[in-house]
Amino acid sequence: MTLADIFLAHADHDTGQLDPAALEASLRDVLSAARARWSDVAFDDAAAVASLAASWAPGDPASPAVAHPPFVVELALAQACLRGEPSALHVLRREMFVRAERVLARLRLDPADVDDVRQEVQTKLLVGDQPKLAQYEGSGPLSHWIASVAGREGLLVLRRRRITEPLDADALLDDDDDPELAVLNTRHGADFKRAFQAAVADLPPRDRTVLRALLVDDRSVNDIAALYKIHRVTASRWLSEIRQRILRDTRTRLQQTLQLDASSVDSAVRIVASELDLSLYRLLAAR
């Protein structure tokens, strides 16, 4: 059985006019890229492709090409971790938790709390009938996604102690990402915060309810799909569109209020996008 056959057998929605030969080549490219990046990880081709098919969100059903998520290689790593592949789990802890550690450091948790959060995050990601890592869909960097999970868990600890502070301007930026972004955030962080909050406030009530369910109440995409009686893929696309609307509206507001060139505005939006879910959690949980 070819990789394309495995993919088509496990896709739980219309595969349209996908060309099997093009699909086969695309899947082999994904697995080759994954092995090139992590040569020590033992990827199971059939299992990886079956997992990719289950999480694949189709674009134009009439197109003969398959549109993989932008971080499909990291999605392949996540799926290997969910299968319990030891080398993949080693990479996950070695590379994908670095950003999460920086986020937890910025929350100024006690060392004991940091240890508890770290353990809780790893347990949620990998253990149970519905491990949280299964919700990762490859739309953004895996390290950012894990950092958001860790940040939300850390903020939950602070909320329990009733010492959660309002959304800070610097909560939108990981300074280690780019020194130039750090300078931009220092000068205009308050403007970024206002633009972001206004963009979220301008969302339709249903969209805010969906984000709160996903991020604050820790509901899954499957839960949201069941609640609104829609397909999981539709729910996933819906959430992606809500996030993109927030970033788009934030960009428009910044263009209107700040005298910055297009490049700086784009950088500002990258600051917001870098930890969007964590920032949304802080904002929505406080309401």
Kindly list the characteristics that best describe this protein.
287 residues, mainly alpha, 3 domains, 14 helices, 68% helix
In short:
68% of the residues lie in helices and 0% in strands. It is an all-alpha fold. The chain folds into three domains: 3-94, no CATH class; 96-164, no CATH class; 167-287, no CATH class.
How many β-strands, per DSSP?
A: 0
| Uncertain ranges | 60-64
Largest sheet report: none
How much of the residues is beta strand, in percent? Answer: under 5%
Spatial gap, N to C terminus:
52 Å
Helix-strand sequence: HHHHHHHHHHHHHH
Helix content: 55-70%
> For the CA atoms, what is the radius of gyration?
20 Å
Structurally, the number of domains stands at: 3
Rounded mean pLDDT is 80
What this model shows, in words?
The longest helix has 26 residues, at 232-257. With 287 residues, the chain is mainly α. The termini are far apart. It contains 14 helices and no strands. α2 packs across α4 (72-82), α8 packs parallel to α14 (276-285) and α11 packs across α12 (232-257). The protein is globular. The protein has three domains: 3-94, no CATH class; 96-164, no CATH class; 167-287, no CATH class. It has helices spanning 3-10, 20-37, 45-55, 72-82, 86-95, 98-106, 111-126, 142-160, 179-201, 205-216, 221-228, 232-257, 262-274, 276-285. Helices cover 68% and strands 0% of the residues.
